[in-house]
Amino acid sequence: MKRSVTKAIFPVAGLGTRFLPATKSVPKEIMTLVDRPLIQYAIDEARAAGIKEFIFVTSRGKSALEDYFDDAPVLEQELRRKKKKDLLDILKSTTMDSGQIAYIRQHRARGLGHAVACARRLIHNEPFAVILPDDVIAANKPCLEQMVEAYAETEGSMVAAMEVPADRTSSYGILDVEEGEGQTLRVRGMVEKPEPGTAPSNLAVIGRYILSPRVMKHLSGIGEGAGGEIQLTDAIAREVGGDGVHGFRFEGQRYDCGSKAGFLQATVAFGLARDDLRDELSEFLSALSLSTS
Ligand code: G1P
Asked: Would the CA dihedral through 50, 269, 69, 213 be positive or negative?
């Protein structure tokens, strides 16, 4: 029987330079969409998909991230004293059992593949998920949960996929897939950040993966790829001729929260999705569009 996916790796070592000066002292993953840090969305999605062990690959300057998952006894005591049950519930939803979390330091920024490989000793002979918290996906059924269900019907590894405009393919891992109409497509090849005009398709890899443990082995054997970094895409590509790779066209709206424009769009969309904010925010947005048109 196929083993279930219970471990997820969260590569959170990046410097977040695109958000300077904010990221000078605040890890990018702690920046908030409305009132929840980016990392909380990733954790919630992982939990919904049945993940039980959360592995963070961090770096220097990310201690705020570790603090975020600790209990906050003083705050809790205060909220209890003031009988703020709703706030206490919110707080509880963010705490994690100590044994559920592991932090591993990536000592040098050598690419996404290298970051994932840093967690190799915590992954045994079992499939594992990778979640890039920059890619926030709003969906009725969380993206990783959709993938876990589809994965049960396939072999090998699976990556989330989405069409991107032709002039954006050089920013992504791009899939070469067999013809097909369904949500799950067999991958024939994949290339990280292809030069403009050379992409095999415009189907991009988005930051959700379910990977065979063999990918960990490939990571230790591959050299530097695009941008002089160890690329996760290159290690997964080695599975194309092995246990196989599938691209999964998820349902939902993806926001690139690694970019300022994407972060702002997500903030507006998540704000409008909230009952407590919708009216005030949409009134403001319509007044704004009237005054700028
Ligand atoms: C990473 C991956 C890339 C993928 C992208 C999705 O790139 O290397 O294959 O398409 O995430 O967001 P990055 O955005 O870290 O450069």
From this structure: positive
CA 173 to ligand 1 centroid distance, Å: 6
Query: Which pLDDT band, with edges at 50, 70 and 90, does 1 fall under?
Result: low
Distance CA 119, CA 10 (A): 10
Residue 169 has pLDDT above 90, yes or no: yes
Ligand 1 centroid to residue 206 C-alpha, Å: 7
Which residue has the least CA distance to atom 10 on ligand 1? 172
With a threshold of 0.85, does the pTM exceed it?
yes
Ligand 1 atom 13, closest CA? 172
| 90 Cα to the center of ligand 1, angstroms | 31
Structure tokens at 268: 């507006």
Q: Which amino acid is at 10?
A: F
Could you give the domains of the chain? 7-258 (3.90.550.10)
